[in-house]
Design brief:
It is built from six helices and five strands; from the N terminus they run αβααβαβαββα. Helix 1 runs antiparallel to helix 6 and helix 5 packs across helix 6. With about 290 residues, the chain is α/β, with parallel strands linked by helices. Helices cover about 60% and strands about 10% of the residues. It has two domains: about 55 residues, no CATH class; about 220 residues, Pyruvate Kinase, Chain: A, domain 1 (3-Layer(aba) Sandwich). Strands 3-2-1-4-5 form a five-stranded mixed beta sheet. The protein is elongated and about 115 Å long.
């Protein structure tokens, strides 16, 4: 049975843990606010870029552009975006489990043939897939501490190079999208070939472009892909901070509940100890009376 000192030490330990989780929650709230600001600024740009490319693609023969042109799929690259750190609930676990199930369901034959290549962004995904029988060809760890657009451009250029030289015939990205303060949604985007630009919308305004549509597509497609990776990193970062905020809030709540429970247990144990001492004193006094 735990002594009173053991219970006091446990209460003190849990109180220290509660202070840490409350501090981590406040840090996550501050980071989440900055991440949401960055996302709110990035989304309109990405939407407009997509709209312009869709309009341009409708005016040219997309088969003249390698990055817009489908081809027989043999080698597949899947980018798995996780976080570098834990303490964010099931943020990484759910995404990794989803990615594994997705690969087995859609590319089981290619997995067995070694034709599925993984690009891991984030330490958690890198550790998981590197320790198992997956073909991890690239790893990007420690990006979120100092998130820069140059990093997104580097990743995008590497993917474009792999698609251009034939190492990959299709590239997909699996990541967490921030849907709100406490909600994350796992999303799969096809990075290459760009298929969403092939559909012409009847509601589009007929613009006159200068220079030509062909020159603009050649110039804008790499910028679009760079920004797509940047937006995905921002989405994942915001989703992580939201998950961490909720996880730390739950941890603080659980710590307070445990402190109340331990305090109740301590009071009962202390009361039992005092009662025991009183009984011993009374028994001793009765024994002295009988002896005299």
């Amino acid at each position: 049975m735990a002594t009173l000192r053991d219970i006091r030490n446990r209460i003190s330990s849990v109180k220290s843990t509660e202070k840490i989780t409350k501090a981590m929650k406040m840090v996550a709230v501050a980071k989440l606010r900055r991440a949401q600001d960055a996302i709110s600024q990035a989304r309109p740009y990405a939407k407009k870029m997509q709209e312009i490319l869709s309009h341009l693609a409708a005016k040219v023969n997309v088969y003249d552009f390698l990055l817009l042109n489908d081809r027989p799929i043999e080698n597949i690259a899947v980018v798995v975006v996780t976080s570098d750190r834990g303490l964010c609930g099931a943020f990484n676990t759910n995404l990794i489990r989803y990615a594994v199930q997705y690969l087995k369901s859609n590319y089981n034959a290619q997995l067995a043939a070694g034709k599925v290549k993984l690009i891991c962004v984030g330490k958690k995904g890198t550790e998981y897939f590197s320790k198992r029988s997956y073909n991890v060809v690239s790893k990007y760890v420690g990006l979120y501490q100092y998130l820069k657009f140059s990093t997104a451009r580097e990743i995008a250029d590497k993917l474009i190079e792999g698609y251009t030289d034939g190492s990959f015939d299709k590239i997909e990205i699996i990541y967490n999208e921030a849907k709100g303060l406490a909600t994350q949604k796992i999303v799969i985007d096809q990075f290459l070939p760009i298929t969403s630009t092939k559909k012409e919308s009847n509601s589009m305004t007929d613009y006159i472009y200068e220079p030509s549509s062909t020159e603009l597509i050649t110039s804008l497609v790499p910028k679009h892909l760079h920004f797509q990776i940047w937006k995905i990193l921002l989405e994942s970062n915001a989703a992580e901070q939201g998950a961490k905020m909720i996880a730390m809030d739950n941890a603080s709540t659980n710590a307070r509940d445990l402190i109340r429970l331990l305090q109740l247990y301590y009071n009962k144990a202390r009361q039992a100890s005092i009662t025991k001492e009183l009984l011993e004193i009374v028994a001793g006094a009765e024994a002295l009376k009988k002896a005299s």
